[in-house]
């Protein structure tokens, strides 16, 4: 799944079967035909990851600056599912 925010920001959600079950959400900034990864977060299930994609898309859609993403210290964002 990919979401384009404006002309310069791309949010990508994927899962690599070779690496196991975590879902990865990556945010890229497009510069001169190249993609530069700004942040990357991992999740245990697809529901958490898609919810995060929607949240990031909303934040970046209202504010075109990626400054908050760089300060956030991306990484593992794992939460156990509530039963």
Describe the structure.
The chain is α+β, with helices and mostly antiparallel strands and 83 residues long. Helix content is 27%, strand content 36%. The protein contains two helices and four strands. It has a four-stranded antiparallel sheet with strand order 1-2-3-4, covered by helices on one side.
Task: Summarize the helices and strands and which ones pair or pack.
Layout: E1 2-5, E2 9-15, E3 23-31, E4 34-43, H1 46-62, H2 67-71
Antiparallel strand pairs: 1-2, 2-3, 3-4
Looking at this protein, list some descriptive labels.
83 residues, alpha+beta, Ubiquitin-like (UB roll), 4-stranded antiparallel sheet, 2 helices, 4 strands, globular
Strand order of the biggest β-sheet: 1-2-3-4
Mean pLDDT: 77
Quantity of strands, as a count: 4
Helix content: 25-40%
What's the story with the biggest beta sheet? 4 strands, antiparallel
Q: List SSEs in N-to-C order.
A: EEEEHH
| CATH architecture name | Roll
Question: The CATH topology is what?
Answer: Ubiquitin-like (UB roll)
Rg for CA atoms: 13 Å
| Domain tally | 1
* CATH top level assignment: Alpha Beta
How many angstroms does the end-to-end distance come to? 26 Å
- Beta-strand portion reads 35-45%
- Give unreliable regions as ranges: none
Spatial shape = globular
Number of helices: 2
């Amino acid at each position: 799944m990919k979401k384009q925010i404006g002309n310069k920001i791309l949010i990508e959600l994927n899962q690599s079967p070779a690496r196991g079950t975590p879902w990865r959400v990556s945010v890229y900034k497009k510069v001169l035909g190249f993609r530069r990864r700004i942040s990357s977060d991992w999740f245990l299930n697809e529901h958490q990851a898609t919810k995060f994609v929607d949240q990031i898309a909303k934040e970046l859609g209202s504010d075109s600056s990626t400054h908050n993403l760089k300060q956030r210290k991306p990484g593992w964002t794992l939460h156990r599912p509530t039963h």
